[in-house]
Design a protein that fits this description.
By secondary structure, this protein is of the alpha/beta class. The protein folds into two domains: 99 residues, no CATH class; 306 residues, Rossmann fold, CATH 3.40.50.1110. Helix content is 47%, strand content 12%. The strands form five sheets. It has a five-stranded parallel beta sheet, with helices on both faces. A two-stranded antiparallel ribbon has the order 1-2. A hairpin with a 3-residue loop joins strand 1 and strand 2. Helix 2 packs antiparallel against helix 4, helix 4 runs antiparallel to helix 5 and helix 8 packs parallel to helix 14. The chain is globular. The N terminus is likely disordered.
């Protein structure tokens, strides 16, 4: 049957076409579970932020189109001209607003000093840390996290977290947020607890977001000037193993295309618009019960089982990172970066008569998953990992094979690190077993929705370190 173009060109036909187009954009929903575990918003209980913004944009354009197309023929040209004029004015206004927002001063918590990024010196911050999903208003079905933590955060004259000014220190700590003490108060980080128990003068040079290249910079420019007898380097079993095989910062991509992408991605106007939509539409029709419990209902992980369980949120990428075989990890650029770091720091410490101890901070998944590995439904684990949009690693064909692979590879990164330290004659201390035992016994060692240690987790780490320190006292020669 031939199409009746006159019918579709009529006013009812135009309205019908526009309506069909708009409905087609709103009928399909997003994968709520995928968004939830990848920490992306779901609006109105079924749409992604991108789909929502695209739908609203098309709805806006459709309204303008209908305003012009359905008007009297005599005024159609005038309406079109008015729409173009208003559109240009609105576009210019938005560009100006975005430019003004970019120029507004923002709090600068960090600054450059001696070639390294440190926190703004001589400052004290107070806050309350809330352990909740980053988009908790979109997912009220999730269990509660760790109770709120009131915290005080004091920064010394060097830009590091120390309660007092320290000119010389017996023990210097180097690391990232696990060393600095993320989401805990000044009296709760493991370094502070270690200092109070052993009466050692400890200087914390941990820095949130730091990585092996930064560790080496801090070691070379700050740590050795403090004249310590011991330096402790804490390696986190996560982004510390994601380097490029060198200890230099990767060159910045300054191509025009990359600059344009950066301008659009970090547009303050766009960010504020998205945040407003999340706050306005996120709670509307938000799931009050876990969606599709039969799919991945075992997550978040509950340890220990029972009514007194603590919940541990794990991102789908974490089991993937822990499923890398030992041989593959040894050849990875990330491990090569860490090996270079350990080699250079150990040689410098040996030349200067400084005791060097490597501390291993395991990822939450490494500590928690073995406690429930046998109880996890294989098919749910497979679906959970596949939320990353990748296939199962290591040639695993299903969840059972993946769990078998994970049981073998879970300790691979820690084992490689320990063996390399032994080859360098460097002391190595892992907190994996101590944290796992405390978790098994009912202590919440990690925050529910964050990868860092709770105050109790820091206490477990400090107690383990103190015990090691007393069992392995410093020799007279050191």
């Amino acid at each position: 049957m031939p199409l009746n173009w006159k019918m579709w060109a009529s006013r009812p036909g135009i309205v019908l076409l526009v309506a069909v187009l708009n409905v087609a954009l709103w009928v399909p929903g997003t994968n709520v579970l995928n968004n939830m575990f990848r920490e992306k918003p779901t609006l109105l209980g079924r749409y992604s932020i991108g789909q929502t913004m695209a739908g609203l944009a098309v709805l806006f354009v459709s309204a303008i189109f209908l305003f012009v197309a359905l008007g009297p023929e005599a005024t159609r040209r005038r309406r079109l001209f008015g729409v173009i004029t208003v559109g240009l004015a609105l576009t210019c206004s938005l560009l100006v607003a975005d430019a003004v927002l970019r120029l507004l001063p923002e709090p600068a918590p960090t600054e450059w000093r001696a070639g390294i990024v440190v926190r703004k010196p001589d400052c004290t911050y107070t806050a309350v840390y809330k352990d909740q999903h980053p988009l908790h208003s979109c997912y009220p079905c999730l269990p509660p996290g760790y109770p709120p933590v009131p915290l005080t955060f004091r920064v010394d004259h060097r830009g590091f977290r120390n309660p007092t000014e320290i000119d010389t220190a017996g023990v210097v700590l180097i690391g990232d947020s696990f060393t600095e003490g993320y989401a805990v108060s000044d009296d709760q980080p493991w370094g502070r607890l270690f200092s109070e128990t052993t009466t050692e003068t400890v200087c914390n040079l941990g820095n949130n977001g730091a990585s092996p290249p930064r560790y080496l910079q801090v070691f070379s420019t700050v740590a050795m000037d403090l004249k310590p007898h011991t330096i402790m380097l804490m390696l986190f079993e996560g982004n510390d193993f994601w380097g490029d095989g060198t200890l230099s910062s990767p060159p910045e991509d300054v191509s025009p295309r990359r600059r344009l992408q950066g301008l659009l991605r970090h547009s303050p106007l766009r960010e504020r618009t998205e945040q407003a939509l999340i706050e306005l539409l996120g709670p509307v029709n938000a799931p009050r019960a876990m969606p599709d419990p039969d799919v991945i209902g075992c997550f978040p992980l509950a340890v220990p089982p029972g009514p007194n369980a603590h919940y541990y949120w794990i991102e789908p990428k974490r089991p993937l990172h822990l499923s890398i075989p030992e041989a593959q990890f040894r050849e990875s650029p990330g491990w090569q970066t860490v090996a270079l770091l350990l080699d250079q720091m150990s040689r410098t410490c040996q030349r200067n008569g400084v005791r060097f101890i490597v501390l291993y901070a395991p990822a939450k998944a490494h500590v928690v998953m073995p406690l429930v590995l046998k109880e996890l439904p294989p098919e749910q684990v497979a679906r959970f990992v596949l939320l990353r949009g990748q296939g199962l690693p290591g040639g695993a064909r299903d969840g059972s094979e993946f769990l078998k692979l994970l049981a073998v590879t879970l300790d691979a990164q820690e084992k490689v690190t320990a063996e390399y330290c032994r080859d360098l004659d460097v002391e190595f201390l892992s907190f994996t077993d101590a944290l796992r035992q405390a978790t098994r016994n009912g202590t919440q060692t990690y925050f529910t929705y964050d990868m860092h240690w709770t105050p109790e987790g820091h206490r477990v780490v400090a107690d383990t370190l103190v015990e090691y320190w007393r069992q392995h006292p410093r020799s007279i020669s050191e």
